[in-house]
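We were asked to recover a plausible sequence for a given structure. The inputs and outputs are reproduced exactly as logged, with field labels preserved.

PROBLEM: sequence recovery
POSITIONS: 366
GIVEN STRUCTURE:
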C-alpha cells in the first residue's frame, strides 16, 4: 500500500534565503517601474513650457473670438427683444383704448335699448329731436363696427408681437448658454497657461511676455517666419505716413485708425474687451477703425471679409493683418513690416513684426 505521508519540507539555507529575498525585491521594483508608480515624470523644459503656454493662448484666442461672435449675436437678439417688448406695450395700450371705446358704445346702446325705434318716436315729446338722435345713433353704430374691427386688429397685432418676442427670448437664452460655454473654455485655457507660467522664473516670464509667446506660437504654428525684429514701439502718432516705414496710409481714415492704434500702446490685453482701457486683438482693430468712422464687425473671422482682401505685398498702414489657419488673431498694419496688436494676457498692446506669426491674410476696410 502506497504511503500518503507529507513530503518532508527543507528550510532554505542562509545564502539561498538571502538570494531569494533579493530576487523578490527586485521583482517588486521592476513591477513598480513598469506600472509607472516608481518612475517620476521629468519636469518639462523651459522651452516646452513656453510652447505649451503659447498653445494655450492660441486656443484661448480661438475661444475668445467665438465668444465675441456669440456675444454680438446675443446683443442683437437682446436689442430686438427690447424693441419687441416696447412695441407690445404700445400695441397693448392701443388695444385697451379700443376696448374702452367699444365698451362706451355698448353702454350707450344698453341705455338706449328696450323699446323699438317706432315706439320711441311716438312717445318722444320732440319727434324732430328724436330723429336727430336716431341719425346720430346710426352713425354711432357704424363707429361701433369700426371700433370692433380695430379691437380685433390690435389683438392680432399684440399676439403676433408677443409670439415673435417669445422666439427672440428663446434665441437669447440659447446665445447666453453658448456664451457661458465659451467663457468657461477661455478661462480654462488661461488658467492652464497661468499654472504653466508659474513654473518659470520672473525673468523668464517677462521674456515670454515681451515677445516669446508669439515666437513660440510661430514655431508651433508651423509656418511663421523667425521673429528677429524688435517689438519696441516705433514712435508717436502718425498722420498720413507711418514712422520709419516710409509707407503712406491710403486714406485719411486709415491714418486715423493707425493714430488710434498708437495711442493704445501699453494698454492691457483683456479678453472680450473693445476699450477704452483694454482690448483683445479684434477689439483693438474694431476700436481703431471706429475712431475713423468705419464700423467693423466684432470678430477676426468676420473682419477678414470687411473691405477689400489684399495680398501681403500690397500692405499699407491701416490694413488688417490676420494670422494662423483659423484666422484667430488680427493686428493693424502700420508700415515697415510692423503691426500694432493686442497679443495675449500679460502682454500689453504693442508694435511687433508681421513675420512673428503665421500669416493668414489681409483686408483693407473701406
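RECOVERED SEQUENCE:
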Amino acid at each position: 500500500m502506497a504511503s500518503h505521508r507529507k513530503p518532508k519540507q527543507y528550510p532554505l539555507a542562509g545564502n539561498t534565503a538571502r538570494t531569494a529575498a533579493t530576487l523578490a525585491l527586485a521583482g517588486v521594483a521592476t513591477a513598480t517601474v513598469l506600472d509607472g508608480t516608481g518612475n517620476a515624470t521629468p519636469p518639462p523644459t523651459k522651452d516646452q513650457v513656453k510652447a505649451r503656454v503659447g498653445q494655450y493662448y492660441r486656443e484661448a484666442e480661438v475661444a475668445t473670438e467665438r465668444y465675441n461672435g456669440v456675444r454680438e449675436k446675443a446683443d442683437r437678439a437682446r436689442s430686438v427683444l427690447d424693441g419687441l417688448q416696447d412695441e407690445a406695450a404700445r400695441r397693448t395700450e392701443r388695444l385697451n383704448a379700443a376696448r374702452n371705446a367699444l365698451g362706451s358704445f355698448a353702454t350707450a346702446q344698453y341705455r338706449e335699448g328696450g323699446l323699438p325705434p317706432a315706439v320711441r318716436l311716438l312717445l318722444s315729446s320732440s319727434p324732430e329731436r328724436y330723429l336727430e338722435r336716431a341719425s346720430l345713433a346710426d352713425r354711432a353704430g357704424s363707429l361701433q363696427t369700426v371700433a370692433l374691427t380695430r379691437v380685433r386688429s390690435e389683438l392680432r397685432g399684440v399676439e403676433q408681437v408677443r409670439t415673435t418676442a417669445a422666439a427672440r427670448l428663446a434665441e437669447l437664452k440659447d446665445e447666453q448658454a453658448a456664451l457661458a460655454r465659451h467663457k468657461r473654455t477661455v478661462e480654462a485655457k488661461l488658467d492652464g497657461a497661468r499654472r504653466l507660467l508659474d513654473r518659470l522664473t520672473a525673468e523668464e516670464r517677462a521674456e515670454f511676455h515681451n515677445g516669446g509667446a508669439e515666437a513660440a506660437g510661430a514655431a508651433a504654428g508651423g509656418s511663421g517666419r523667425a521673429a528677429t525684429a524688435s517689438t519696441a514701439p516705433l514712435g508717436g502718432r502718425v498722420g498720413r505716413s507711418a514712422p520709419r516705414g516710409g509707407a503712406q496710409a491710403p486714406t485719411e481714415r486709415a491714418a486715423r485708425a493707425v493714430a488710434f492704434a498708437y495711442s493704445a500702446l501699453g494698454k492691457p490685453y483683456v479678453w472680450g474687451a473693445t476699450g477704452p482701457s483694454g482690448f483683445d486683438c479684434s477689439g483693438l482693430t474694431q476700436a481703431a477703425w471706429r475712431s475713423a468712422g468705419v464700423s467693423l464687425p466684432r470678430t477676426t473671422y468676420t473682419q477678414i471679409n470687411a473691405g477689400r482682401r489684399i495680398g501681403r505685398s500690397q500692405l499699407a498702414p491701416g490694413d488688417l493683418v490676420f494670422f494662423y489657419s483659423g484666422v484667430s488673431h488680427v493686428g493693424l498694419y502700420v508700415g515697415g513690416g510692423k503691426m500694432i496688436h493686442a497679443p495675449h494676457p500679460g502682454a500689453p498692446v504693442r508694435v511687433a513684426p508681421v513675420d512673428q506669426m503665421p500669416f493668414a491674410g489681409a483686408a483693407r476696410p473701406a
